[in-house]
Amino acid sequence: MSFPIGDPDVMHRILAAVVHALRSLVRSRIDLVIENATLRQQLAVLKQRRPRPQLQRFDRLFWVPLRHLWSGWAEPLIIVMPETVVRWHKEGFRTYWRWKSRQKGRPKTAREIQDLVHQMAIENEWGAQRIHSERLKLGFLVSERTVSRYMPRRPAGSGAIERWKTFFRNHRNVLAGMDFFSVLTATFQVLYVFFVIGHQRRRILHMNVTAHPTAAWITQQLREAFYFDKAPRYLILDRDGKYGRVVPKKLKSWGVNVVRTGWRSPWQNGVAERWVLSARRELLDHVVVFGETHLRRLLAEYVSYYNLDRCHLALDKDAPFPRDVTSRPTSSSKVVGLPRVGRIHHRYEWRNSSRIAA
């Protein structure tokens, strides 16, 4: 039986085996023990007498913690893709919060009360205060906040939308928005990302991360964002309780006109909400965050890419800090990709062949 020396696949497997053997000579004993355990675990799955190996809950419980304890977890993984382990982690987070948010404490509001709030709002076009007053006369002891929670949503009228569009167009140069969004970590900790975005060129003016957002912390972030009298004339923010009365009062003392969005109306701060969507799709959906410092570093790299490199349709396909259009400098020049954000994204520029070779 002849040995297919010329077969590229065979040669590749032989070379990979030799390289793996040489690496094993310099690796620590603990890494070899963990790798052996991972391979044995996968072998046990493959030995199942079924047309296709079935992964059980124990298999997920084995790989998700290992992913955070051992940096080389992805190398011996063969039965599933590394992206599958990331998805398992996110599913575990949702399961954890469903368990943590299970009903406890005071009972839910009775269905009769919910229906009556809806009926009064539809029949009379009343607000929460008026409905709460009427319900007190009927002997229902519920808070005004509870009434607000069950108010039916009313779509914004065309007049309101046009007024907001006109406001944005007329004040784009002196307008900014700020907001928070949350990010989960590998240990199911919730971190809060604060940012300020300018409307004129959609530049991220400031960004920071904290696990405990307070009014004092937010005020300090605004000082760092609006240094040297750089504060905008108008600043859009929602009605989040984290701001309290301190933040709007401080902004007004700086000469900033605070524009608060309506209840449950994120479209009124659409530029900020759109950046949150971009940050999730283009960065956070591709990584697992290990802590506050890790998230701050990732977002700092993404903000630099977003401001300097990323092209926007709303800016005539230019970046927030405008990029020059460059032509091919020489006939031998080639387009090269400059990695950004850990190679998740790239910026492309012309480079001479000699510089590429160097």
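The record above closes out task 2.4. Task 2.5 opens with a second protein, given below.
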Amino acid sequence: MNLSKKVQLFPSIKAIDALWSVSHLCTDLWNGSLEERTYKRGSKANIYSQKKSLVTIKEYLPEFKQPSSQVLQNVIFSLDRSFSSFFAKRKKGDFLANPPKFKSKKYFFTQEYSQYNTSFIVENNVLKIAYGKSKKDWIEIPLPQEVAFINNFKTVKILYDDAKGKYYAAFSYEFEEVSYLPNENTMYFDPGSKNALTGINHKGEFYNYDISHLRETNMQTYLHIDNLKAQLSKKKKGSSRYKRINRKIKQGFSKINTRTKMVLSKISNKIIADHPNINQFKIGNWTTPQTISKTGLKIKDKRINRAMQNNNPLSKLINIFSYKAKMVGKEVSKFDERGTTKTCSMCGKKLKEALSPSQRVFKCRDIKKCKFEYSRDHQSCLNFVKNFESALWQSLVGKLPTRTKRVQVNVFSCKTQSNIVHFKMHGNLLP
């Protein structure tokens, strides 16, 4: 499997000049290719024709011979991926998606060097990037010691954080994971907008992995960013105060991103540590576009979408958990969970309408015979067991659990906190 490692760089002035020179050429190529695909009538430009045109561009504009050919090709590939993503979202009904836009030269263009020995090499802990006519002209940047353990390099991306004024290298490398061996123990998770992951293991025990503390802290940062944006709108563009506020806004988003990755990695490690004997984790196929608000009121939609999408990094948690599980020989897969939230696990009757996110208790619509009431997320887990683990379901009938182990991560100390939470149950306990 491929992993990534991001490290800070300390390039020389000569290296910085060369990197920015490549950045400007990449920006020119992006804008020219975008114009050709968007605004020229009768143009049949695509990824293949634009890739071939690089030879002609180098003949008429010799400065394009300086950077690596792979870097220029990756600009074309990136533009094509942006168009493909845009059309795919529009096809699925997401009309808020925007097409690729022109880029400004004042921002650093992220450069991707995609082949070791051809476009970049690492020798004696020094990164050498293809530039100029021969290897003598290549850009050389010293690397920190934390990269010394990596041997199988695949690609490297050179980035610049405008808010911090720092350069970074993001390496991708090959990691030999532990081989996956399936066993009889499986854990099922119900992803949700209120509780991140609620699961039931092979013993019938409930676990709840909560990121509400992360979401609350991120929301405070989002509100602080909103206040800064309000101040920014009153300042003259380009002034020193405008630049200072704009830098604080970027730093706020950077804090949210770093904090989120740190907490989600901690939660993922905790899930694996809590269940050493489980090799299969199955998660309901929850997707972000399902939660897009379309009330018709712009302000209300913005508030709901921020709470449900921007500030609910559930997809990111599942992705991090998946690759961490794969490293230790475990498998994470998705399954169809449609209808499990509104289906009674006892009598099998479905509610006519879906439960709202604020309704945390499931109540069966058969109020005469069944009258089953149970915690909403845990009731979904019971349906998973009923559908896929018949032996476990038979052992739970008549003595359903009424408690769950809740796990949280403190955002500031990054330490996990666990406690037992009890919930009420009512009605018929026999299907």
